[in-house]
Each structure stands twice: as structure tokens, then as C-alpha cells.
Amino acid sequence: MNAKFLILVPLFFLSVTIPQALGQGLTGRAYYKSSSSIQLQMDSTQMAPEQMAEIQAQLKKQMERDYILSFTQTESNWKQAESLGGGPATASSGGMTMVINTGSQDRVLYKNLADQTFQREEDMMGKEFLVKDDLETPEWELTGESKKIGNYTAQKATYTRIVDSQRFSTGMTEMENVKDTIRVTAWFTPEIPVSHGPENYFGLPGLILEVQNQGRTLICEKIELNPSSEPVIIEQPKRGKVVNREEFRAVQEESMKQMMNQYQGKPGSGNQFTIRIGN
Q1: pLDDT tens digits, residue range 116-159?
Q2: pTM for the full model?
Q3: Residue 103, by phi and psi: left (phi above 0), alpha (psi -120 to 50) or beta?
Q4: Residue 123: in which H helix or E strand, if any?
Q5: Where exactly are the structural domains of the chain?
Q6: What is the H or E stretch that residue 62 is in?
């Protein structure tokens, strides 16, 4: 069976409820939902279109995730909200089962805008790593467009970047170096004057409420500012072997080589997949 994956951006309705609280000591929590719509392209002789549609629908629902961004003026941490459905996305139809690992539920990403550094927990090859390095600030371009998100006026910003990636598919004898073009659209509100955002996104003059990156969408659904009942505490990652960005990239490449050796030179037999490593 040949399988390829294409991520599409779905649409979501957003409602944001934000108490009125601003100032130099601004803290808060922003609650986001992520979604990815998956389109499977398979050999029609091995899977009927209705079976593919059923698996796509199952995966789309299971790959929805809830996240929490906790922030002060200069620091933030990002992690997945606790849930019973936080494991890999699994779908089956017609005797075929597909599993997509969406990452560890308790993984933490910490960003410090004052010293321009980050710390991120990662799992790779059954080992835990703590990636520490300098932040790479996106070169945002403001478009002048705006829209209402909840009670706030959000402005549109974009950036495009070309990155080096490596790709391996079953049937190939070695990894292929490729160029990937990353296109990101963000909507931020200057009415919440912090430069934070979900995941790796930051660096705009206001909290980022929505991000679209290729086939993934992150949308803020609720914000709590200066919460008095449960003050914001910024958690820093602690688990794993400390490595920098390039050292972790080397670990990813080693994992990719092991997978390549396992499936090298097997075109058209069994399951076919593509692995890509990039930024």
C-alpha cells in the first residue's frame, strides 16, 4: 500500500472572552486549539475511497489538541492541556490501521524574550532531550489587514522562509536534501501588549491569537489576564539530556538513517511512507 499525506487547513469558529486588565505586570493564560486536516492519497486498488474518507475523518478528529500558553511580560511556557485523548491518533478501516504520533502530552516549551532563549523537551529514539538554544525571531511583515477576534481587533502578519530539510521514502537508497518553503500567517492583537504566541511563534507587538502554517491551524479560544484565583507560574523544562539545536538535529538524522536502513530499497512492497526532517 502506498500512502502519502497532505495537510490541509480547516476552519474553526472562535469566541474569546477576556477580562479587562492591562499594565506593566501583565500575566495571563491563553487557551488554544490546534487542528490538522489530513488527506490520504493511496493506491485505489488497495483501499476503497470510502475507506480512505473514513480514516481521514477519524484522524482529523483525534488530532485536535488543546494547549495552554502561560505568560508574563518576558517569559512564557507552552504545553498541551491534560486530556484522556492525548495519545497517538489511531484510525482503522477495512483491516488497515494507521497511527500518527502527535507528541508527548506533558512536553514543555519555554521562551524567554528578555535574553532571547528557549528550552524545549523532546523525545527521540526512546530517549529524552532538553533542547536549549537562542530564539530565531521571524521576519514578520505587517499586511495592514485586520479582523475582529472575540472582543479584540487583530492585525495580520506573515512571513516566508526557505529551510534546508532531508527526506527519505521507501525505495530510496539514501537521504535527499531538499528545500522547504514555510509560509506562516498570524493574527495578533496590540490590545494585549505582550510579544508571545503559541508554539514557536513570537515577536509581534501583541499577543498572537491565531496562526496558520501550511496545514496546521492554532486558534485561541479563551484568555485569562492577571488571574487572581490562580496566579501564573512559568514552568521551565527540566527533563532530558541537554543539547543545542544542531545536536538535536543530528539525533533526528541518526534516527532517520536507522529507519532508512530498515526499509532501504523496498519499492512497492508493504507500507510506503515518507520521513522529512526540517525546521
Answers
A1: 999 999 988 789 999 999 999 999 999 999 999 988 899 999 99
A2: 0.73
A3: left
A4: strand 117-124
A5: 3-277
A6: helix 49-62
